[in-house]
Design brief:
The chain is of the alpha+beta class and 77 residues long. It has a domain of 51 residues. It contains two helices and four strands. It has a four-stranded antiparallel sheet. Strand 3 and strand 4 form a beta hairpin.
Length: 77
């Protein structure tokens, strides 16, 4: 299964929109958490190459907002 993730973040000087399809292998019944894990992995890759000052919004499949989950998980690390 795949989910379509859209990420809006504030970079060095402006808002940036990135999007793409990501495989979800094991999601059991919590698709939000599985999509969040894929998004967090992707965000970490982006942070290695670019400045990510602030996460503004993260959604999957156009209408599922997982921004709060992402921010909470990233703050835990």
């Amino acid at each position: 299964m795949e989910v379509f993730i859209e990420l809006i973040y504030f970079g060095q000087r402006s808002e940036i929109l990135r999007k793409g399809n990501f495989p979800i292998e094991k999601y059991n019944k919590d698709l939000d958490m599985a999509a969040a894990e894929a998004a967090i992995h992707w965000i970490k890759q982006i942070k290695r190459e670019h400045i990510v000052s602030r996460i503004i919004k993260v959604t999957y499949d156009k209408n599922h907002d997982i921004t709060e989950i992402i921010i909470a998980k990233l703050e835990e690390e």
